[in-house]
Amino acid sequence: MRVFAGKLSIANFLTFFLITPLILIFVYFLAVPNPNLAAGSDFLSYYAGASIIKNGNANLIYDMSTQKQFFEDIIYPLKGTITNRFISPPFVALFYFPFTFINYFIAYKIFFIVNLGVFFLFLYLLRRALTDMFKKYNFLYIIPFYFFPVAMTLFMGQTSYVLAILFLLIYLLLVNNKSRETGILSAALLIKPQYVFAIPFLLLLVKEKRQFLQGFFITTFSLLLISLLLVGPKALFDYFPFMLSTENPDFGNRAQQMFSFHSDISYLFFKSNLSSIYPFILNSGAYISFLYLFKKRMVKMTIKTAFILVVFLTLFFSLHVLNHDLVLLILPIFILLESSLKERGRVEVGRLIAPILIFILPSLSIFDNTFAAICMLFVISSLILIKPSVFEIR
Asked: What is the pLDDT of residues 317-356, one digit of tens each?
């Protein structure tokens, strides 16, 4: 009983030690005005996109001069160089429509609270997926809050938690052989079109590929129809050219600060020109090669191991990956962490290396060059492909 009480008190102290700074930071953030942070957040782009539709200019949603005017009006009287833009598909703006009835700076704080609630939902679902581990180590609930992309998502007003929930639900559906449902949620990943790179991997993993494709195409068509009704055909056709034209430092997209193979080769060999066709061709060639290797090697993996590889390769090959997008890495971190626990509750220290490395990977961006992080992601992905037994999760 004394040993148990000792362990309990240590666990309680660790929980208190980790959670107290978080509470203080959140209370301070909500209580103190911080207009400059709000004006520089990505929430501005979503709010502006929804405002353009609300004000009857939906057909001009991808017109840069229209966006710039709305940005300036929204953050007035603050002034500065606008580097933001709305580059999400039109249907995404619907989720932000209710916020446009509130003053932007208040809406930013409210969205912070809503986004925090979404993250708690993600943690709840994660606990349901990995019940035994969280029962043994309650303080693990708090660890994700210290993952750098989590803070970036919260304070930048990004949608990465929603994507993390989608990936987590896809993981649970794969484990339970739900092919049609996996296809439906795979289409929902188009909230951020760069995650289209995940879909061929997921198609390879499901058993009933026809059901997957049915769910995927029906959902994709529905989202396309909603977007068409919202903004009209011209704006919809303008979407991809607009997105490509804004992939440059003038809009905050610096290749050396992104976490992907495409951004890396753009930085090293093509003067950080993210919209150049040559990095895209090289990235596509490498992606197809890894897709082929994945198809050949996945039979040697459990579904859990294959899934974490899908997350790694999706991020590695996506064209637009910033720090907040790496929230997705929470999934492989905790799945790998679970594998380090033996049946009797002991920890395999060697297996802790991978989740620890992945946890610190996003923090490498503080050096304003993500080359080391991208190399780390490549090495871990390659090791799983070559020798999946090293990471095997059962």
From this structure: 998 888 889 999 999 998 888 776 654 455 555 567 888 8
Count of C-beta atoms within a 10 Å radius of residue 30: 13
Phi, psi of 203 (to 5 degrees): -60, -40
CB neighbour list of residue 206: distance below 8 Å, 6 or more residues apart: 174, 177, 179, 182, 183, 212
pTM of the entire predicted model: 0.90
- Quote the CA–CA distance of 191 and 127 in Å, as a whole number: 25
Identify the bridge partners of residue 347 per DSSP, sorted by sequence position: 341
pLDDT tens-digit readout, 158-168: 999 999 999 99
Domain-by-domain residue ranges, the chain? 33-390
